[in-house]
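Assess this:
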Amino acid sequence: MTDNCGRQITYLRISVTDLCNLRCDYCMPAEGVTKRQHSNILRVEEILEIAEAAVELGIRKIRITGGEPLLRRGLLDICKGVKELGIDDLAVTTNGILLRDFAEPLKNSGVNRVNVSLDTLKPEVFRKLTRSRGSAPELQNVLDGIDAAKLAGLTPIKLNCVLMRGVNDGEIEDIADFAERMDVELRFIELMPIGQAKDMWRERYLPNSEVIKRLGLKNGVQRGVAMQYGRIGLIDPVSRAFCPTCNRIRLTADGNIKPCLHSAREIPVRNLHGAELRGALTAAILSKPEAHDGLSGDAPSRSQRGMNKIGG
């Protein structure tokens, strides 16, 4: 389906939970999030009904997100059902902590590929960033998950690295080398002033131009929302808004469509069926703004949800 700005909307991101087994300080509050009542989260059948209506309107790619989607009961049933809708691509974004055990079941459920969050290769930075204590998950869990995803054929694997001044900016070269050794793709993503990151954004924000300079990247090609340099992609929502190429809408775990990540606008679709559901999805697509209002410390995201409740 085409929106009012002439963009073909072919990509739906589905958040299946806002719970997570990490507490990354730029994404989650230190105390975590309050667990919702089961009745407040879309059932598997509801997710599949909404996904089917979206496919009828032209959605060809679906990504399952969270929170951490591997925590969601019934995830494999969701993946199987979505894949049976006949879409071109089904992907999952995960922090990797549980991926070692889920890689093969995900592949068998129809998932084509995974994106894995990897902000650091240093165990001590990982513990501080994720607020891990005691027997909490470690960086090695993520690395093991990446290995398992490769073995299962969940490829091409993409690593998502949120770049932050004073946290992991000293690892740009190391993370790029790691991705090359592992034969996986890499995305450096600029920190956005949204949710938990609003208060720390001025201190931590580092534009992806630093990556270009440090790695000597040249001759980038725009592919979707990323500027691509071989296997390294740069996603620059702050320094180079990619709104003209944005082809996505988002479904929250409690049943609302977000036409734009950084807008406060949400369209409820839970408990709608048939023509009424398709009508609400159509209205959401047609209300997608031409662009967000700009992202900075003075103009942070207008989203009323943090990233853990949207799925990126």
Notes: The chain has a mean pLDDT of 94. Residues 5 and 290 are 6 Å apart (CA to CA).
